[in-house]
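Entry 14. Structure prediction run on the chain below.
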Amino acid sequence: MALEPLMKLRGAGLRIGIVTARFNSAIGEQLLAGARKALNDMGVEDRDVFAVTVPGALEIPLALQELAASEQFDALIALGAVIKGDTYHFEVVCNESAAGITRVGLDLEIPIGNGVLTTFTEAQAAERADQKGYEAAQAAVELALLREYIHRELGEA
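Output returned:
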């Protein structure tokens, strides 16, 4: 496994937290459906998935931080859609949301699959949402399994 991605991700027994932004809610629902499908495909039980919503992408990091601090999850998933408007606000939301998500993962030492879309149009977001949600869940599970593997191989588990 050391240099190869896990070919068949098995998430059975993992506890996963999901935070979804309600802004652009139709896209958020697609992202969440994609993530839930991936988790199901990887054997994660519905009872092992805890999902919450927040107003928008800027609020995602705080909710992730609260879930991570609970120490009840093996991995987290961040979902949302930021669609470009006519102002610089798009760049601020994209950059700060991504930086916050990354900081939570590193500071609290928890894998996070980042499924926050940043697109120019709603059509682009809708086109990518199912797959992006699916891939964010896969990334979260793969990193949780990799973390377990590293700790086990290094005698830290």
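The domain at 16-153 is CATH 3.40.50.960 (Rossmann fold).
Filed with the rest of this week's runs.
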